[in-house]
Design goal:
This protein is α/β, with parallel strands linked by helices. Helices cover 26% and strands 14% of the residues. The chain is built from 14 helices and 18 strands. The strands form 4 sheets. An 8-stranded parallel barrel has the order 1-2-3-7-8-9-10-11. A hairpin with a 6-residue loop joins β12 and β13. α11 runs parallel beside α14. The longest helix is centred in the middle third of the chain and has 19 residues.
Length: 543
């Protein structure tokens, strides 16, 4: 295994394409907008970008319902524009990862439409999970599973002759039927898809629902059928984390290694792996499987030093022990943004929530391994919590009627410039509004303002990334915990860089005397301010 791969301590920026930058004026971000934003990302200092799905799709789940895995939806451009984006990114030294969705497709995918028109027991239906229902006339679902986004995980179809027919499985929405990975056509088709994009020069893939794909072959009832819907997590042990999935990642890794052997350019596989423990997580990043898998436990940890220390220690022990590196994340397109999540902050993002978000960012960038930054994180954007019901597009809201866990609030288009919406997000000959409304307080977070203010979130991220690249103590490696006062968490990296976080609200004596190298808030010499993180260089100091 190459222990010096670029991905081992890379910082990747997640681009949610429809909300990044709109080049046409239709109110929806696109690939040309991403290309226009590349100099901004180069200046920030990231190593690569991960693009959310831009494939042809009816957009029932914003592109995670894929109708064609080898194309570009006209909302976002075309393959020629994608090639221009790839070339521009590589000229700037920015690697490009695509989001691939192998667990399910769109109900508009040609193979699913073929299955609907075919007979029960046909080869077309064998690509999915079609089966007869239970009870008189098959009127009951085949089992008691519930979908992640609410409601039953099964939908009954009407056969070609008009009779009520079989049921098909969808662990998210009816518009997203699950593939049957026990059918050899499916792995063969996805190998074709991988090679299509690898041949166009992509640097790797973020794999959606990487613990999914296989279901228990007998599709039995679950002892807790509502667990997935209740937690909105993949916890049904009969539908997720089946042992056969590891063979898929071994094969995909071999495909990537084949391309790497041709030109020496290492391709990356990073999985969205949601499993009960760090130990099970580690199984996905063994040397012949995925290079990385997102470690969500840090994202889910409460603002508490003991909780942070516990999840970091478990990750370092179980995941780094495989020979991979931990892949840290604090935000993504499915989660409430940290400024709001860390709580007790005004909606506008001022106050304690913002201070904690800054501190958490500095802590994450000091940890051994790789880090992923979600767009707008570097601007300190808060969650937009007051979107009207009539603009919500998340299928969770459509399926449940509840605003709980709805994800639109972290997907509001980025503010770039100006004082009023669309804040430079959309341009062109049309005058469409952004696809989700931007609140007026986004004026405080526009990128032009952030770049001009050296105390902004943006400069904290940029300075942290620059130091991360320049200091040998950071990046890949190990850490050693320090004894600290209550509410303080501190560790040493390499031969003398200390990162410390004060989880309390009152100042305390700094773990290292002197002026910090970088701090997320005001830290007078010898003092670690409340809700603040800081880095110190400590050569010659006995720790």
């Amino acid at each position: 295994m190459n222990r010096h791969g670029w991905w081992r301590d890379a910082v990747i920026y997640q681009v949610y394409v429809r909300s990044f930058l709109d080049s046409t004026g239709d109110g929806i971000g696109d690939l040309a907008g991403v290309r226009a934003g590349l100099p901004y990302l180069k200046k920030l200092g990231v190593d690569g970008i991960w693009l959310s799905p831009f494939y042809p799709s009816p957009q029932h789940d914003h592109g995670y319902d894929v109708a064609d895995y080898c194309g570009v939806d006209q909302l976002f451009g075309d393959l020629a524009e994608f090639d221009l984006l790839m070339a521009s990114a590589h000229r700037l030294g920015i690697r490009v990862l695509l989001d691939i969705v192998p667990n399910h497709c769109s109900s508009e995918h040609p193979w699913f439409r073929e299955a609907l028109a075919a007979e029960p027991g046909s080869e077309a239906r064998a690509r999915f999970h079609f089966t007869d229902g239970r009870g008189p006339d098959g009127a009951e679902p085949p089992n008691n599973w519930h979908a992640m986004f609410g409601g039953p995980a099964w939908t009954r179809i009407t056969e070609a002759d008009g009779r009520p027919g079989q049921w098909y499985l969808h662990m998210f929405t009816p518009e997203q039927p699950d593939w049957n990975w026990r059918n050899p056509e499916i792995p063969a088709e996805f190998e074709r898809v991988l090679r299509f994009w690898l041949d166009r020069g992509v640097d790797g893939f973020r794999i959606d629902v990487a613990a999914g794909l296989f279901k228990h072959p007998e599709l039995p009832d679950s002892p807790d059928p509502e667990a997935d819907a209740r937690t909105r997590d993949s916890v049904n042990p009969l539908a997720w984390n089946q042992p056969e999935v590891h063979d898929v990642w071994r094969h995909w890794r071999a495909v990537c290694e084949e391309y790497t052997a041709r030109d020496g350019r290492e391709r990356l596989l990073v999985g969205e792996v949601s499993v009960p423990s760090a130990r099970e997580h580690a199984m996905y990043v063994r040397p012949d499987e995925l290079h990385q898998a997102f470690f969500f436990d840090l994202l889910g940890a409460p603002w508490d030093p003991d909780a942070f220390r516990k999840v970091i220690s478990e990750a370092m022990q179980d995941i780094a022990g495989t020979g991979s590196t931990v892949t840290w994340v604090l935000n993504n397109h499915d989660q409430v943004r940290t400024v709001t999540r860390y709580g007790e902050a005004a909606v506008e993002g001022s106050g304690l929530g913002a201070a904690r978000a800054r501190a958490a960012a500095l802590l994450m960038l000091a940890l051994p391994g790789a880090a992923y930054v979600y767009q707008g994180e570097e601007l300190g954007l808060p969650e937009v919590v007051d979107l009207p019901d009539d603009v919500l597009t998340d299928p969770i809201f459509r399926r449940t009627g509840s605003r709980a866990r709805v994800r639109d609030g972290c997907r509001v288009p980025l503010p770039w410039s100006g004082q009023v919406s669309p804040f430079g997000f959309t341009s062109g000959t049309q005058s469409a509004k952004p696809w989700l409304p931007q609140p007026s307080y986004f004026a405080e977070h526009v990128t032009e303002r952030a770049l001009a203010d050296t105390r902004s979130f943006w400069h904290l991220y940029r300075d942290g990334l620059q130091l991360r690249s320049a200091l040998p103590q950071l990046g890949e490696g190990s850490l050693r915990w320090l004894d600290t006062p209550p509410d303080v968490l501190a560790f040493v990296r390499g031969d003398g860089l200390v990162c410390a976080v004060n989880f309390g609200t009152s100042p305390t004596t700094a773990p290292v005397p002197g002026t910090p190298l970088l701090a997320s808030g005001d830290c007078p010499p010898g003092v670690l301010a409340g809700s603040t993180a800081a880095w110190w260089i400590t050569e010659g100091t006995d720790l």
